[in-house]
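Notebook, bench 3.
Goal today: get a predicted structure for F-box domain-containing protein from Lyophyllum shimeji so we can plan the truncation constructs. The sequence was checked against the plasmid map this morning, with no discrepancies at the termini. Length recorded as 473 residues. Pasting the sequence as submitted so the record is complete.
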Amino acid sequence: MTTSTRDSCNACSTITSIPPEILSHIHTYLEPADIISLRKTCKHLFDATSQRSVWTDALQRVCTFSGLFLPSFTMEKMSTQQLEKAAFAPRLFESKVMANNPENFLQPFRVRVLEPRFASEDIGQFRAFKVVPGGRYLVTDCERAIVFWDLAVTPPSPLASLPSKSDAMSTMEFGPTTDGRGVLVFVIEEQDGLYTDLTVYAIYPSSQTPEFTRIASLNHLMIGAFDMTARTSTDTLLVLLYWGMATIWNFKDNRIITLHAPEGACDIAVFEGYLLIFQPDRFSLYVIPPLRQRHEGDRLLASVLDQYHPLAEFAYPSGSPYSKIYLAEASWFPKRNNRQIFGFSATDDRDKTILNYYVGGAAGTPGLRMIPVLASSSNSTRLPERHGPLYMAFCNERIAQIWSTGPRLSIILGSVPTQPGTGNGVAGAFKSAALGQFDRGYLMAYGFSPATGRLCVMTSPHGIRIIDYLPPF
């Protein structure tokens, strides 16, 4: 017997003496690829890593890291093999992008078309849509209703609709419910062109009879739908940016506060007790102040906090009138992932770049309040030309950034900036690919779930193309 064979046998003998519950606990710290590597070492680990519970835990961790809506996967009905494939999906899509020739389009596995039809109800044509992270569910704004769809079946199935009382109803924002099993949908509707109602609904797609259930509302707002930007990253707070003001609303406790936003504020975000307000050349970080009880009939400006200053300000390397901010879908992360990642794009003719930033809690400060810190990725990528809206999401251990140039959609996979002060990217870490060219119309809307390889594109109000780059689970 050789030394290497003897060592291998000794290792296997040692492993077989480890109790199954200890092995199961070890697996909770491993990525799917590491689990497969263990599987190849010996029969004992092959059997251990083939357990259903191992892949249920692995898929849950993938959903946590990539910010996916957990009910996108009906784990209780999935086989062990299906769980394994779903857990590997982010890495498979990353490998597909990495192996693709940049001059060629990424080849889809299948393409379907979603049409605006809902039983006997006339919902009208599509206007816009949002893809719930995970790619299974879709929220569409139609002419006469907001509709929640399940894309896991063929043809895609409408689960519930919210009829419109006017011609001006749309989805402003969405996020997960407290239990992580439902979707919060923030709907804004203009009434007779005089005022606006903002209503929070919840829908549980896995229930026997999914429906939109009203949670809270702000009525008779004297602000147009197109004058407001709405963001959420928790199951209790919605922030609004409008007319140089920033309003923070706890829609569960009906408490509210309004701040004066810095001049030129163009976007807003909220996370873990902090508020981010973006300007073309910088962003400001605020501690969310105590909120005040809102009474029926109070206007947004009834509780204005004067002379409230930011905790810190950070300037971008460059700024221009065409600079844009793109937020990753942070609202679907568990609360322990106290981070906000966003992209800054300078799109003037001199410097077309994307820079990624991370804002989160400082580690190693037990007993102290979370101290926000900033890290920017050392990577940036130049855009080939002035681009359309840029969509950000997570895929495996990378940030996926998708943008349009005319009828063409492209994707970049880059490093996730997580190390305060230094940036963890290295030169050449970005990999780009062309997702497709849509010549039969302009890109009215698109959304992507790279962790499951599903792209949704609307070039016409008559249909939404559902493009799968990976086989279904």
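The domain at 3-89 is CATH 1.20.1280 (Monooxygenase). The radius of gyration is 24 Å.
Flagging this for group meeting.
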